[in-house]
């Protein structure tokens, strides 16, 4: 199956909701992709394809859709899974980082001992827009010594420039499909 056919199938499986959560946003809803067994399988296979057979120690998934995809990716790569969560959700000792949202600031955390220094880690989320969320996740992972192999997303919104932000950290970015606008 060609890359183009896979891309077409993934794009067709993603639902777009206009003006959600606020006016002017085209929300790319991947729950329809997750609910489509073939598309879900294809997306996970395509995300991990460059690392099939190579050693990845941990997959770090960003709350919440990154948990669903990251769990499947970790299973596929025979890697562990480390959750990156909104603040105050994790029970053990954590490291925390603040990051900017469109309005205001939020914080994300992970367990200090979730990754051992030098472990090879892949970051997973459903979508990259401005890249602020993934940038914070990569900085958090680097602060505990992770060797980040790549950051992977099903959807890229290239008009918002997130990819460059992550690549500027020295982290390769893998995305499967693009949508214009935001
Ligand atoms: P950003 O930090 O700007 O790259 O935003 C990425 C995060 O926000 C991801 O966790 C996405 O799930 C979510 N997100 C941002 N824009 C959209 C969109 N247009 N549709 C769906 N999710 C989005």
Jot down its keywords.
single chain; 182 residues; alpha/beta; Rossmann fold; seven-stranded mixed β-sheet; two-stranded antiparallel ribbon; 6 helices; 32% helix; binds adenosine monophosphate
Question: How would you describe this protein?
Answer:
- The protein has helices at 3-13, 31-34, 37-48, 65-77, 132-143, 162-167; strands spanning 15-18, 26-29, 58-62, 80-86, 94-100, 105-111, 120-128, 147-156, 173-178.
- The protein has a domain at 54-178: Rossmann fold (3-Layer(aba) Sandwich).
- It has 182 residues and is of the alpha/beta class.
- It binds adenosine monophosphate.
CATH level 1 name of the domain at 54-178 = Alpha Beta
| Global morphology | globular
The CATH topology of the domain at 54-178 turns out to be Rossmann fold
- The protein's oligomeric status is single chain
Number of helices: 6
**N-to-C span:** 29 Å
The secondary structure category is: alpha/beta
Give start-end ranges of low-pLDDT stretches. Answer: none
Ordered list of secondary-structure elements with their pairings:
Blueprint: H1 3-13, E1 15-18, E2 26-29, H2 31-34, H3 37-48, E3 58-62, H4 65-77, E4 80-86, E5 94-100, E6 105-111, E7 120-128, H5 132-143, E8 147-156, H6 162-167, E9 173-178
Parallel strand pairs: 3-4, 3-7, 7-8, 8-9
Antiparallel strand pairs: 1-2, 4-6, 5-6
The structure holds adenosine monophosphate.
Short summary of the structure?
The chain is an alpha/beta fold and 182 residues long. The protein has a domain at 54-178: Rossmann fold (3-Layer(aba) Sandwich). The chain contains six helices and nine strands, in the order αββααβαββββαβαβ.
């Amino acid at each position: 199956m060609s890359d183009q056919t896979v891309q077409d199938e993934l794009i067709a499986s993603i639902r777009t909701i206009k003006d959600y959560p606020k006016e002017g946003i085209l929300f790319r809803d991947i729950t329809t992709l997750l609910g489509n067994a073939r598309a879900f399988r294809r997306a996970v296979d395509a995300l991990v394809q460059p690392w099939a057979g190579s050693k990845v120690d941990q997959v770090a998934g960003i709350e919440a859709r990154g948990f669903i995809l990251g769990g499947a990716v970790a299973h596929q790569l025979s890697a562990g899974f480390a959750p990156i969560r909104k603040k105050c959700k994790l029970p053990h000792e954590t490291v925390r980082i603040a990051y900017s949202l469109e309005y205001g600031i939020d914080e994300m955390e992970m367990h200090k001992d979730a990754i051992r220094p030098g472990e090879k880690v892949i970051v997973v989320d459903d979508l990259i827009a401005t890249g602020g969320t993934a940038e914070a996740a990569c900085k958090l992972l680097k602060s505990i010594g992770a060797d980040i192999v790549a950051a992977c997303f099903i959807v890229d919104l290239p008009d918002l420039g997130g990819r460059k932000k992550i690549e500027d950290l020295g982290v390769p970015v893998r995305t499967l499909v693009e949508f214009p606008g935001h």
